[in-house]
Amino acid sequence: MHGPVSPGWLLVVLCAATGAYCLLRMRSAVEEQRRTAGGEALMGFGMAAMAVPAAVAAPPRWAWLGYAAVFGAAALRSLWAARTDRHHLHHLVGSFAMVYMAGVMVASPGHHGHGGSGTPLMTGVLLLYFAGYVLRSGARLLPVAAVGMPLGEGVRALGTGTRTVGWGDRPELARACRLSMGIAMLAMLVTL
């Protein structure tokens, strides 16, 4: 997770920006947006904090234990929520990946970014999952032929009328944020 400084800072900025956008989505009038935005904001800011280059600030052991505790609690919440909403299974896997990476850093604090610190099988399984997630999320962002009115212009059809949709309620932006976090998770897992 703590490899070269420049890519580390790019990850920090990407994840923090994604977390900030997810916080804005929590103010949405759309219930589905609000329901998942809090967990995604936590994930974005947590990933940003974990991606800070070790050359700048090497977290103490207790910080990694704190990450593991916070994301362990998030995993339990996602497990509970997955009973009624399948989307929370992805949050469960993401939270588990964060607990796993924090655990790797607790177990081998002197090997940040040098590989070989995590369990190769577990790291490989998580890499495969997130690679598939990134490919699927990227494919969902591809434009499709619209029938009738284009929804990508900030307008959503409501029965026979239309209304302007705020940029915080646009599903394609939420998907782009999820894609960004998936790519960041891949980058963080590769350096284990």
TrEMBL record:
Source species, domain of life: Bacteria
Signal sequence region: none
Keyword Membrane: yes
InterPro entries documented for this protein: DUF5134
Transmembrane segments: 6-24, 36-56, 62-80, 92-111, 117-135
Keywords from the UniProt entry: Membrane, Transmembrane, Transmembrane helix
Protein name, as recorded: DUF5134 domain-containing protein
Organism: Streptomyces sp. R21
